[in-house]
Amino acid sequence: MTKNNSTRSGFPSTSRSLPISLLRAREVVMQPIRDMLGELGLTEQKWRILRTLDELGEVEQSTIAKEACLLLPSLTRILRGMEADGLISRQSDAKDKRRTLVTITDKGRAIVRDNLHLANDIATRIETHMGQDEVKQLLDLLEKLQAAKL
Fold first, then answer.
1. Residue 18 CB-half CA count within 13 A
2. Fewer CB near the last or first residue (10 Å), C or N of the chain?
C-alpha cells in the first residue's frame, strides 16, 4: 500500500473508500436499531415508514418512498401489509383519484410513541461515543452530500 492510502490497483483502500465507509457506518448504527425492531416484529422499512408518517402526517406514496428511502414498487407491497396489520390507512385523493394518500393509524403511532425512548437511547449512545458536536457535524456533512449533484 502506498502512502496516499491507495492500493496497487489505484483504488483507495477500503478503509478510505467513501461508499464502503458509509456502508460500514450504517451497519454500526443499524445493528442496535435492528435489535430493537426484532423485538417489535418490525422491519427496518416498516419502521422508516411509520417514522415518516408520524413526522409528515398524511402524504402521497411517492413522498413516503423518497423520505423513507424505498423504491415505489417495494413501498406499495409493504404498505399493503401494514394496512392489513392496522398500522396505516390508505385512501384515494378526493381531487385526483390516481393519487393514494397514506396516514399512520393510532396503532402505528402508538408503536412509534411506545418505542421512542429505545430509539433515543440508541441515539444517546452514539452521541456519547462521538460527542454532540461531532454528531451534528456528521449530520450536516451528510446533508451536504445528499444535496450534491454528482
1. 3
2. C
Could you tell me if residue 139 is left (phi over 0), alpha (psi between -120 and 50 degrees) or otherwise beta? alpha
Taking CA atoms, 129 is separated from 60, 112, 132, 134, in Å, by: 37, 25, 9, 10
Give Cα 75 distance to the centre of its chain. Answer: 13
For the stretch 29-80, pLDDT in tens is 999 999 999 999 999 999 999 999 999 999 999 999 999 999 999 999 999 9
Please tell me the pTM assigned to this model: 0.86
Dihedral sign, Cα of residue 62, residue 87, residue 84, residue 44: positive
C-alpha angle 51-139-23 in degrees, rounded to nearest 5: 80
Given a contact cutoff of 8 angstroms between Cβ atoms, the answer to whether 118 and 36 are in contact is: yes
**Euclidean distance between CA atoms 86 and 99, whole angstroms:** 21
For residue 129, which amino acid is it?
H
Residue 98 cell numbers, joined:
390516481
Answer yes or no: are the C-beta atoms of 80 and 92 closer than 8 Å.
no
The three grid cell numbers given for residue 66, joined into one nine-digit string: 423518497
Which amino acid, one-letter code, is at 111? Answer: I
